[in-house]
Design brief:
32-stranded mixed β-sheet; 16 helices; elongated
């Protein structure tokens, strides 16, 4: 029997999985369960917050007083106490904080026990501001608050920086929208500046983020032992109590000075980096700077203004301008209150009155202006008729601060000396004061100098090095009545002295070195030369012929002095003209300021009537005396009179005849500024008429310089 063929294979039909629907339901269930859990957690947290809020609101958070004291004390590293009522809770979304008789202690090194204390403080705080660090107070009521702000001795920490590590941060205040402040005081102490200030803050009442009236501050204190008084106002009627535009106006009085400060502050105490306009006036600028321990010479009355920016320990005064006495001044000044006080300044002056420069050598400028230099010198303790001041350098104070100064002066207003284009660089470092370089133009010539006062050596070691470039004589002497026309001679020279002393007078009284001024070939007025020569015949002849201003040729000239222990001796004084040779002897003393010099001219040509006697210069620096009619001239006049009586009038004239035997000078040693021993005639022979570089005292041991007893005899006897 045939078997039927198998049926063809067909694709299998998939069957539904009974677990798939169950898995989808499980995922949805898990999501719903997670949402319920999160919701329950949130509700629980919210409930807890409500409960906490409710508990705090009901209890006013008074039970948190001691935890608050411990927590804040730990954060500030200071004991914090609240002796009266305490409240800390949300009301409703702002943190309300109330504390009575609250104190925050100062660190152990402070001079007062508390940084902050208040009879009562009541405030509303923005909660999120505590999280983000930008503290904001919606409202503040402070009664009888007292704040003590201090720096430590080495300026490494302050009382308002809550840290165990060194370093003091600037004082910052929170933003305050509405405030009432009553009976609050602030004390500030800075040992480095030696500053203590006690300030009283006027009552503050503000509303809607507006102060409504000026906030006043009054107080007093001392700075470096100098009492001062200060008053200030914050004018902010249209700004927030803090973090707004606070217009500051302050005035301080100290040591006969008045200082005004004004500017716009970003906060009540935020002065760092803020440009402030300052104005100062007073009778003496040295009194103002002396308050911060900076010593400058006395000045006349001053008025100055500048822009002040304080940045850390730096106080930068820019755009400075004003007057000191009759002189203008402009520039900038930076005062750095670091380990050592340091001043760095750049100044310019268009016109400096010569009287205002008097303090730089120790004079009081007011006395100079009213009574003259001699009276000003006497005021420093100098002997009568002395012109050099005895004012001592402020040795100890100069060691307390350092300074750098660059000062340029266009013109110096002076009756006699045409000085201009002064360029001064001053460097003071730990008691060593250097005026180097100090240069200026004088009568179309230039003077370059270096002066150093080293107070680290006792007594002070002083070095003077003053160099005069070739300068026209006519212009240089024009202020003394010498006309410039007809005078083409020039002069150059150098003063190099080293001494010891704490005043200019003492340093020069002990100085040793050399002074030399060289006059190369040129022309001088006949009148000036002939008056010095006392060649009466030539002088009278030219006077009657109206040739008084005819130029006289000068071959070369040298005025040289050797200085030993404060006494300067001519070494040499020698001028060679076409007609005469002029020599001088003697010297002067920095100790007594005495002058004792004698000049004599010998003619190179025959002169029928010539005095030919020395011209003496005596007296003192302040009052020199010209002795034209000398003993020798009187003796020659007496001899002439005797000859006329016993012989004839013609014979009497022989006493005044100059045979003209003067030996011309070799100009090489003269122009080299050589000493007397190196001087020669044109024939090369040593000169025997220019002395040995010694005074009469050194030559014969007689009296002090300036005494007439033997000095007159010696001077006249050497010719």
């Amino acid at each position: 029997m045939d078997t039927p063929p198998p049926a063809p294979e067909t694709a299998a039909t998939p069957q539904p999985d009974p677990d798939e629907g169950a898995g989808t339901a499980t995922v949805d269930s898990r999501r719903r369960r997670a949402w319920r859990i999160a919701r329950n957690i949130l509700l629980t947290i919210l409930g807890l917050l409500v409960a906490i809020w409710l508990v705090l609101y009901i209890t006013k958070g008074r039970f948190l007083k001691h935890p608050f004291e411990r927590f804040v004390g730990g954060q500030t590293h200071r004991p914090v106490t609240v002796a009266g009522d305490f409240q800390l809770y949300f009301a409703p979304f702002r943190i309300k904080f109330v504390a009575e008789k609250m104190t925050i202690a100062n660190p152990a090194w402070a001079t007062k026990p508390f940084l902050f204390q208040a009879e009562r403080i009541d405030t509303r705080i923005a909660p999120l501001s505590l999280i983000w660090g930008k503290r904001r107070l919606y409202w503040l009521d402070l009664a009888k608050g007292a704040v003590d702000l201090e720096w430590n001795e080495d300026h490494s920490a302050n009382t308002w920086t809550f840290s165990n590590e060194k370093g003091g941060k600037p004082l910052e205040f929170p933003r305050i929208d509405v405030a009432t402040v009553r009976g609050t005081t602030v004390r500030y102490r800075d040992p480095r500046m030696q500053l203590i200030a006690d300030l009283k803050v006027d009552d503050i009442r503000s509303a809607d983020a507006r102060i409504g009236k000026a906030v006043g501050v009054d107080g007093d204190g001392t700075i470096r032992g100098t009492p001062f008084r200060v008053t200030a106002q914050l004018l902010s009627p249209d700004a927030t109590v803090n973090r707004g535009k606070n217009e500051l106006r302050a005035r301080a009085w100290a040591a006969h000075n008045v200082v005004d400060v004004s500017g716009t502050l970003p906060s009540i105490a935020g002065i760092e980096g803020v440009p402030l306009q300052t104005r100062a006036r007073g009778r003496n600028l040295s009194e103002l700077l002396g308050i911060i321990g900076v010593v400058i010479p006395n000045t006349r009355a001053y008025r100055l203004k500048a822009q002040l920016v304080q940045q850390g320990q730096e106080y930068r005064f820019t755009r400075m301008s004003g007057t000191v006495g009759e002189s203008d001044v402009a520039g900038k000044l930076t005062i750095t209150n670091g380990d050592r006080l340091h001043l760095d300044s750049t100044l310019t002056t268009k016109t400096l009155d010569i009287v205002d420069a008097a303090p730089f050598i120790g004079y009081n400028p007011d006395i100079v202006a009213d009574k003259g230099a001699i009276a000003a010198a006497a005021a420093t303790g100098a002997a009568p008729q002395r012109i050099m001041p005895d004012a001592e350098l402020p040795i100890e104070t100069m060691r307390r601060f350092d300074a750098d100064l660059k000062w340029t002066i266009r013109t110096v207003r002076s009756r006699n000396l045409p000085i201009s284009n002064v360029d001064l660089t001053l460097d003071l470092e730990r008691g060593r004061l250097a005026l180097s370089p100090l240069g200026f133009a004088m009568a179309r010539g230039n003077v370059a100098s270096d002066v150093v006062f080293d107070t680290r050596q006792r007594p002070t070691a002083v070095s003077y090095d003053i160099r005069l470039a070739p300068t026209p004589l006519g212009r240089l002497l024009a202020g003394y009545g010498v006309a410039e026309a007809g005078t083409t001679g020039t002069v150059k020279g150098r003063i190099k002295l080293d001494g010891r002393g704490d005043s200019i007078h003492d340093s020069l009284s002990t100085a040793s070195g050399r002074i030399a001024f060289i006059v190369p070939q040129g022309q001088l007025w006949t009148r000036n030369v002939q008056l010095a020569e006392l060649d009466l015949g030539t002088f009278v002849q030219k006077m009657f012929e109206d040739k008084l201003k005819k130029p006289v040729e000068l071959n070369c000239g040298l005025v040289g002095f050797t200085v030993r222990n404060g006494v300067a001796a001519a070494d040499p004084i020698l001028f060679d003209t076409t007609k005469n040779v002029i020599v001088g002897r003697g010297g002067f003393s920095f100790r007594t300021e005495g002058l004792d010099l004698a000049f004599r001219a010998d003619g190179k040509k025959f002169s029928l009537f010539s005095g030919q006697s020395p011209v003496g210069i005596g007296g003192v620096f302040a009052a020199p005396k010209l002795d034209v009619v000398s003993d020798q001239l009187l003796a020659r006049a007496g001899a002439g009179l005797g000859l006329a009586l016993v012989a004839t009038p013609v014979a009497g004239m022989l006493a005044f005849v100059d045979v003209g035997d003067a030996k011309s000078a070799a100009c090489g040693p003269v122009l080299a500024g050589a000493t007397a021993r190196a001087q020669r005639t044109t024939k090369g022979t040593p000169r025997d008429d220019v002395g040995k570089g010694t005074t009469a005292k050194e030559e014969d041991g007689s009296g002090s310089l300036g005494e007439k007893k033997s000095q007159r005899k010696k001077f006249l006897g050497i010719f």
